[in-house]
C-alpha cells in the first residue's frame, strides 16, 4: 500500500490576509505526525487482517476433502450431490 501526504507551505496562508480573516491557519507539524502514526496503525491492522484471512483459508482447505478433490483435478460440478 502506498500512502501520500500532501504538505503545503504555510506561506500561502500566512501571507494572504484574506485567508487569516476567514480563520485559515498554518497546520502545526504535530498534525502531520499524528496523521502518519494513524496511517501506520491502519496499515498494520490491514496487513494483520490479510495475513489472518490467508492463514485461515489455508487451514480450512487442509480440513476439506473437497479441496483435496479440486487439487486432484476433479470438477466439483460433475459430482451428483445427495440431500441428507
From TrEMBL:
<protein>
    <submittedName>
        <fullName>L-Fucosyltransferase</fullName>
    </submittedName>
</protein>
<dbReference type="InterPro" id="IPR015422">
    <property type="entry name" value="PyrdxlP-dep_Trfase_small"/>
</dbReference>
Amino acid at each position: 500500500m502506498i500512502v501520500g501526504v500532501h504538505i503545503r507551505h504555510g506561506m500561502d496562508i500566512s501571507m494572504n490576509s484574506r485567508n487569516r480573516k476567514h480563520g485559515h491557519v498554518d497546520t502545526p507539524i504535530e498534525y502531520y505526525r499524528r496523521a502518519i502514526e494513524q496511517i501506520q496503525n491502519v496499515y498494520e491492522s490491514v496487513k494483520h487482517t490479510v495475513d489472518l484471512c490467508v492463514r485461515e483459508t489455508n487451514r480450512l482447505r487442509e480440513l476439506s476433502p473437497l479441496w483435496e478433490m479440486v487439487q486432484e483435478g476433479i470438477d466439483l460440478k460433475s459430482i451428483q450431490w445427495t440431500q441428507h
